[in-house]
Amino acid sequence: MIKLFEHIGKYFMLLAKVFSRPEKGRIYRRRIMFEMEALGFNSISLTAIISTFIGAVVALQMAITLESPFIPKFMIGYATREVMILEFSSTVVALILAGKVGSNIASEIGTMRITEQIDALEIMGVNSASYLILPKVVATVVFFPILTLFSIFVGIIGGYVIARWGGLMLPGDYIEGLFYYFEPFSITYALVKGAVFAFIITSISAYCGYYAKGNSLEVGRASTRAVVASSVTIMIFDLILTQIMRV
Amino acid sequence: MIRADHISKTFEGRTVLKDITVEFDTGKTNLIIGRSGSGKTVLLKSLVGLHDVDQGKIFYDDVCYTDLNFRERKAIRKDIGMIFQGGALLDSSTVRENVRLPLDLFTEMSEGEKRDRVDFCLERVRLQGADHLYPSELSGGMVKRVAIARAIVLNPRYLFCDEPNSGLDPQTSVVIDNLIHDITKEFNITTIINTHDMNSVMEIGEKIVYIHEGNKWWEGTKDDILLSENRELNDFVFASAMAKRAKSVAK
After folding, report:
1. In terms of CA atoms, which chain B residue is nearest residue A115?
2. How many domains does chain A have?
3. What ipTM was estimated for this complex?
């Protein structure tokens, strides 16, 4: 328990270093663009594949579960939309990206730590925490909500495809379900969750890498710790945000 | 000049540096030597500020470095160049980007001025044609030379080298040694090299400090070493049969 508080304290002290005044804005802007490509743009294909299939599976499951003459068919479209917006596209995609992006960040920064690249930056007088972590945080906080929107869109398309070509229902019914009782705030809710989870993944993974010690084995362990800690924190904040923002 | 005044450092109950007082001269290649685990890397990292000492003070010329806060230390750090054991080049940047980074962060130079300065430094370490390569594409000697170029790009007043010859063949080691020595003389830098390479000691060591079990055990010049009767120093420096013969000839 004491160890946990020690980690939390160190984490917030690292954040203070990360958000202290950057050396030169121009350099940071260039690094943010680079990180957006590395951490965000390069995650599009994974997000697309998973979201398409999950959207299709959700629609299929709904069709099987809601097979009753008393339940209108458009409910399949409605349920698919709600699942994608409220939970899948923000939370589940975040959990998947915690594995991909989180381990990437922890191993990159961890390797920099054990090969003394971070020490080299410090010797130069660079705030290494800010220089390495801030662009990643900004890039993911900006890009992950876009990925969330993309995931919602692609997932709904996946549901449409299975609904139409799987013979589950008429396309018109599915589309009617998509617009049925639509609450625009749910999109805001999904975007907020996307941004918060992006911050959690990036900052926790960077923390695990930044304080890695020893050899390459330790980098592997830091990477695993990053994924586990990010995933657990995402679930905790999912509950908190849902409670606060109740859609 | 860099001076350590009664510095001590302890890690998890184990005292690694014990009350060390030593001065390193400007314009000279100062060498810290000692067995593996003797505390010489901790001494070097303490001098450069990567470890905070538990006791004692460190002076850069007349400024007490240990009394400065993070922001004040930053000003001195811009005068420091350091060559790490493994080079510590940024893997995701090319040779040119690595050397250019301190200029991007700390100077207001124009693009042309930066290009000229990087070209000058790369030429100085004889790496003109390698500027587009990534660290993974370089040999061990080239990595060290890029690290030297990066270390001198801001015209440092103090240069620290942590085992600059480790992992290099004897010929390349001599090249790196001479390069560091020449740069020290050319720019009148206070250079401190941490090494256990006896060739370096005999080639470029102008002031040598021997660290033994966390203590400063001996200091002198490379000529003094040959005549020293210090048992631990002799056991370390003249460990090989060839070195023992060399000492007896020198005597």
Report:
1. B88
2. 1
3. 0.81
